[in-house]
Sequence to fold (302 residues):
Amino acid sequence: MMNEVYHNPVLLNKSVEALMGNPNGVYVDCTYGGGGHSVEILKRLGEQGRLIAFDQDQDAWVNELEDDRFTLVKQNFRYMKNNLRYLGIRKVNGILADLGVSSHQFDSPERGFSIRFDNEALDMRMNRSARLTAEQILNTYTEEKLANVFYNYGELRNSRKIARIIASERKSAPIKTTADLKRIFHFIPKNKEVKFLAQLFQSLRIEVNDELAALKEMLVQSAELIETGGKLVVISYHSLEDRLVKRYMKTGLFEGEQQRDIYGNWASPFKPLQSKVIVPDESEIEENPRARSAKMRIAVKN
Fold:
């Protein structure tokens, strides 16, 4: 049964309206969570339509919907293509991905995602069956590897200094809780503390869950799975994700120079449908403050 307070979906109507063309088509919700987007898709789906949703977080599975047109796949969306083939699906009409951490995950202290809580385990696994945790990263990664995580995934320019401090502190006692980590950086000025910790936690979370690699795999698979004229809709919450989505939708690449096909046309699998990113309006942000950082991009399959 769906938990209505599990997560408040961002840009709900705009994203589903952008996604759906054929009401009897096949659609994918890459990030099921509390089922908010899936419920809205099913409202607009015809009797012959089909919706496949993905979520690797066991907490989300209790929200599974009972509908003959709906299937919940209890895995990471990076395995989308293989799972759809197992279900006999080769092509879909649209794919929606609402990236990032759900409200439920942020609001569950024991998950270790939020800087708001103290004395909670530094876990940060979206899939609790996975082995790697934030605690393991902080206590076992080399100083150089830590610096790379903080720089690449948290965009922290003083990443080497941060890594050096952590490597020094863990010699006297393991870093086990959110309070331990925050205590190490007690010297950060109060007006910069929240932003710094948010970037630090983000970097650890991305490393724990291999989020950017999973996103790349999903985007590439989307180009293979979506039929011509179908839509890809992605909502991201930080610049690392948004840059990957923007570039792939525009060029079909994550790096390097875009190529032309044999006819001289740019060889991109998608065409972006808007020149500017779509963001929530003030009323939605007021109702749901976590929507403030959301950016939605829509592309049609060529």
In short: The chain has a mean pLDDT of 92. The chain has two domains: 12-103+211-301, 112-209. The beta strands are 26-29, 50-54, 70-73, 92-98, 226-236, 270-272, 295-301. The chain is about 40% helix and 15% strand.
